[in-house]
Amino acid sequence: MTKVTIIGAGSVGSTIAYSLVMTGYATEIVMIDINETKALGEAMDIRQGVPFCSPMTIYAGDYSDAANSDIVILTSGIARKPGQSRLELAQTNVNITKQILPQITKYAPDATYIIVSNPVDILTYTVCKCSGLPEHRVIGTGTILDTARLRQRLSEYYQISQHNVHACVMGEHGDSSFIPWSQVNISGIPIKEFEKSLVGRPGDYPEMDFDEIEAYVRKSGSRIIERKGATYYAISAAVCHICRSLLGSLDTTIAVSTMLHGEYGLENICLSILNTIGSDGAIGKILYNLTSDELTKLHASANALREVINQLDI
Question: Is 19 exposed, middle or buried (0-12, 13-18, 19+ CB in 10 A)?
């Protein structure tokens, strides 16, 4: 039996609930929203498709219904508008998160919390500082989606399965993120050597433009918002992947946002590096042998986040 509570029944929260039903990762889902009518409608709509899926229960409720949850997913907050940076959302969504935390942790103190709302690194930091939860049970989605965008872009470029592309995006989920290219490989072959290793396969590949790929990864969210108003399909898939990792029997390495205590020389900040995710939450970190330039970029990302945090009331 696996119980998941989702706070926020907007596009992201509802799509996560739908995805969890389709994948069968949860046996009970509670949807909580300040707009109770919206939560009721979303839960009812999804519930009526359950006969085509694995047996489970999904309903709208209040905080008390979150009791005994294994996972709590926070998607509540004000959505990012076209042209607005994630960091501009900071104080408003920090205030919303701080208001929610005592109500949900009262009933689900032992759950692992997945933070999805933006700015995700700052809200992950807020939950760590204000909730009283063990830090290893607070996981921000961070750059997991940026990493998926990177792997998808490289797989398209080389016309090879995304599963053969090993890469991640590090730092803030935002403008100061970066790709540690020294660690990117395809089937174990460093990215800068992969093309010349191809034998017996036709293909004329233009020269790899690393700056273009980084821009694509950073700007994808903004471009989707400009075109359709919001992003929710890919992030829901990413959250389901985290849930599967939390519920699985084997640990998984994922680029997500967690509190750092000395890793890469960084202290008291939440941003994305590789984490080991298992049944007890974020149970460990994996440190790359970054180049000096990559380490500088990681510290610059941390400083960008810290500069905003210092201006907030957390």
Answer: buried
Confirm if 242 and 139 have CB atoms less than 8 A apart: yes
Distance CA 212, CA 23 (A): 34
Structure tokens at 194: 């992969």
What gap in Å lies between CA 154 and CA 9, rounded to an integer?
Answer: 33
Tokens 């210092």 belong to which residue?
310
Strand partners for 284: 276
Say what the alpha-carbon torsion angle 96, 101, 102, 108 is, to the nearest 10 degrees. Answer: 150
User: Region 139-157: what's the mean pLDDT?
Assistant: 95
Tell me the catalytic residues.
173
pLDDT, average across residues 14-28: 96
Lookup: tokens for 263: 């890793």
Q: What's the gap between Cα 46 and its chain centre?
A: 23
Q: Does the structure show a pLDDT above 80 at 49?
A: yes
Whole-number Å distance between alpha carbons of 248 and 268: 29
Q: In degrees to the nearest 10, what's the CA dihedral of 147, 150, 151, 157?
A: 180
Do 26 and 243 form a contact (C-beta atoms < 8 A)? yes
- Calpha distance 149→147 (Å, rounded): 5
| Bridge partners, residue 255, by sequence | 274
Position 299 scores a pLDDT of 98
**What's the rounded Cα separation, in Å, for the pair 219 and 281?**
30
In the numeric block, the tokens 């990493």 are attached to 147
* CA dihedral sign, ordered 38, 85, 231, 62: negative
The rounded distance, in Å, linking the Cα atoms of 51 and 60 is 18
Place of tokens 């969210």: 221
Q: What are phi and psi of 43, to 5 degrees?
A: -65, -40
Residue 208 contacts residue 186 (beta carbons within 8 Å):
no
User: Whole-angstrom Cα distance, residue 139 to residue 275?
Assistant: 10
